[in-house]
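ok new one. same drill as before - C-alpha cells go in, u give me an amino acid for every spot. 508 of them this time. try not to just spam alanines like last time pls lmao
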C-alpha cells in the first residue's frame, strides 16, 4: 500500500490550520477554613467583590471580604460537605436570578430554585441580584395611586405606585395582614406582586401561601422564601433577589408590588455574616454599612419616567419593633429611607381596632398625590379629626362633664373609628370606601348606635349597588365629587337613613 506524500502533507496542513487550543484557564484557590456558613479561601488573587465561586460539591459562594492574604466567602447553601483543602474556582460572574413571566405564581428560594414541586422554571432570562438603582433623571414623581383596599390606609396614609411605605410595629400586631390585603387588592389591576419572606417560620409562610391561593392571588404573585432554617447568606440576599425579579417588569413598563417580610431579620443575618467575617461592629453590634444595605435595596423602588416606559416598583418593607421602640437603630434607619410609615400599635390591636394604625405617628410623605380626587375630598380632614378625637377621648376618661359640641365630636369619633375597622383579607373597592367615609364625615352615622355601624355600612353599600348603581357608576367614572354628584349621594343617604331607621324600629 502506497502513501501519497502530497495528500498526507495537505491533511497535516489542514489539521494545523483548524487546530484550536483548548486550554482550561481558571483561577482556583484553596479552602483554608470553613464553618458557620463562611469559608476563608487562599489563592484567588484576582477575584472581585461580589463575584461567584464554586466549591467541589457544586455549592456556590459569594466573595464577601477581600483581605490581604485570603478571601472571605459566604456560602449560598449547605457548607457541611466543604472541607479544608478543597479547591475553589472563581466563576467570573456576579450572582443572578431567573426572571420573566415564568416566575409568577411560583414559590422560589433566593437563588431562583423552585420550592413548590411544580417543575423547573421555563425561562432563560436572568438579572443580577445586585443592580444599581435608577437615577434621578430616570424617575418621575409618585402620582398614581396603589390601592391597598384598607379604608384607614387609603384615606389617611395613601400609597402611590413607586412609593416605599414602611409597615412598622411589634410582633403580632397585623403587619403581614396589611401587606397581604394590599396583595389581594391588586387582583385584576395588572400589578405583579412579590412576597419576600425572610427568617419567617415555614409554617407561617405556608399559611400565607394558602391565603394567597384561596383568594386567587397566587396567579399574579411570586413568593421568595428564605425561612428561619435557611443559611444567613440566603436570608441576606433574598430581598435583592426578589427586587431583581420585580425590576424585570418595571423595565418593561409594567407595575410591581414587593413586600419584604421583614427587614429586621435581614439586618440580623447581615450582622451575623459581618461578625463572622471579623468586620468591626458598630451600634447594637451591626456593621457600619447596614444603612447602605437597606438604602441600596429600597432605592430600587421607583416610578420610571414616561420615556422609559413609566413602570414602577412599590415596596412595603416590614420592620418589627421591640416594645414599640421606634428609635432603635434599624427602625430609625429604615424610617429615614422610606416615604412614610404605617405604625401599628398593640394597644389598639388588642382593643379590637384593626388595622391597629396609630394615626398620629403614621404618615405618607406622598400624601394626596397618591389619592383620587374623590378620596382627597372626603378624607381631607379625617386625619386631624381622628387625632383630635384621641385627645378628647383621653380627656373624657377623667370623668369631667362635657359640653354638647365636645360630646358630639366624641360620638362622631367613635363612629369613625368603627367605620375604619376592617376584617382581615377583605379589601374594599376604593369607590365603596369613599361612600362609607363620606357618610361618616358628613354626620349620617351620628344617630346610629356604635355596635350597629358595621351592619349599617354593609347594608348601605348593598343599597347603593342595588338601587343607585347609576350614582356608583358616575363616581367610578369621574373619580371626583362635584356639587351635582354630592347632592345625589346625599339624597341616596337620606333615603337609606329612613329605611334603616324603620327596619331598626321594627326589629326592636
Amino acid at each position: 500500500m502506497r502513501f501519497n506524500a502530497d495528500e498526507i502533507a495537505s491533511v497535516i496542513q489542514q489539521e494545523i490550520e483548524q487546530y484550536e487550543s483548548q486550554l482550561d484557564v481558571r483561577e482556583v484557590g484553596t479552602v483554608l477554613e470553613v464553618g458557620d456558613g463562611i469559608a476563608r479561601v487562599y489563592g484567588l488573587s484576582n477575584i472581585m467583590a461580589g463575584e461567584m465561586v464554586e466549591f467541589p460539591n457544586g455549592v456556590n459562594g459569594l466573595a464577601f471580604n477581600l483581605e490581604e492574604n485570603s478571601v472571605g466567602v459566604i456560602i449560598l447553601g449547605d457548607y457541611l460537605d466543604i472541607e479544608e483543602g478543597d479547591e475553589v474556582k472563581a466563576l467570573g460572574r456576579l450572582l443572578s436570578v431567573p426572571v420573566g413571566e415564568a416566575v409568577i405564581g411560583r414559590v422560589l428560594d433566593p437563588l431562583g430554585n423552585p420550592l413548590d414541586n411544580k417543575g423547573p422554571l421555563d425561562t432563560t432570562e436572568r438579572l443580577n441580584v445586585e443592580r444599581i438603582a435608577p437615577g434621578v433623571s430616570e424617575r418621575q414623581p409618585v402620582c398614581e395611586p396603589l390601592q391597598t383596599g384598607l379604608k384607614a390606609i387609603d384615606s389617611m396614609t395613601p400609597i402611590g405606585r413607586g412609593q416605599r411605605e414602611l409597615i412598622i410595629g411589634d410582633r403580632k400586631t397585623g403587619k403581614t395582614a396589611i401587606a397581604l390585603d394590599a396583595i389581594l387588592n391588586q387582583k385584576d389591576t395588572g400589578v405583579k406582586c412579590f412576597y419576600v419572606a425572610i427568617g419567617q417560620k415555614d409554617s407561617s409562610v405556608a399559611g400565607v401561601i394558602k391565603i394567597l391561593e384561596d383568594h386567587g392571588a397566587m396567579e399574579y404573585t411570586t413568593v421568595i422564601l428564605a425561612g428561619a432554617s435557611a443559611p444567613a447568606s440566603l436570608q441576606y440576599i433574598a430581598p435583592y433577589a426578589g427586587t431583581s425579579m420585580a425590576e424585570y417588569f418595571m423595565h418593561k413598563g409594567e407595575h410591581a408590588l414587593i413586600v419584604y417580610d421583614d427587614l429586621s431579620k435581614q439586618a440580623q443575618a447581615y450582622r451575623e455574616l459581618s461578625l463572622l467575617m471579623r468586620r468591626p461592629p458598630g451600634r447594637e453590634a451591626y456593621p457600619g454599612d447596614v444603612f447602605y444595605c437597606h438604602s441600596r435595596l429600597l432605592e430600587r423602588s421607583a416610578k420610571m419616567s414616561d420615556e422609559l416606559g413609566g413602570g414602577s416598583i412599590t415596596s412595603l418593607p416590614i420592620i418589627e419593633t421591640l416594645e414599640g421602640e421606634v428609635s432603635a437603630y434599624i427602625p430609625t434607619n429604615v424610617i429615614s429611607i422610606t416615604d412614610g410609615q404605617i405604625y401599628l400599635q398593640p394597644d389598639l390591636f388588642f382593643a379590637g381596632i384593626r388595622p391597629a394604625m396609630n394615626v398620629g405617628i403614621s404618615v405618607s410623605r406622598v400624601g394626596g398625590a397618591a389619592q383620587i380626587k374623590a378620596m382627597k375630598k372626603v378624607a381631607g380632614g379625617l386625619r386631624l379629626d381622628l387625632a383630635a378625637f384621641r385627645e378628647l377621648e383621653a380627656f373624657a376618661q377623667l370623668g369631667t362633664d362635657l359640653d354638647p359640641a365636645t360630646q358630639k365630636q366624641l360620638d362622631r369619633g367613635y363612629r369613625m373609628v368603627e367605620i375604619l375597622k376592617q376584617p382581615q383579607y377583605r379589601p374594599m373597592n376604593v369607590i365603596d370606601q369613599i361612600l362609607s367615609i363620606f357618610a361618616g364625615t358628613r354626620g349620617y352615622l351620628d344617630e346610629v348606635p356604635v355596635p350597629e355601624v358595621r351592619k349599617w355600612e354593609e347594608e348601605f353599600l348593598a343599597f347603593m349597588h342595588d338601587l343607585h348603581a347609576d350614582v356608583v357608576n358616575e363616581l367610578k367614572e369621574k373619580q371626583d365629587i362635584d356639587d351635582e354628584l354630592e347632592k345625589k349621594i346625599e339624597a341616596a343617604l337620606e333615603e337609606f337613613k329612613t329605611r334603616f331607621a324603620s327596619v331598626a324600629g321594627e326589629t326592636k
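The mean pLDDT is 92. and btw The chain is about 40% helix and 15% strand.
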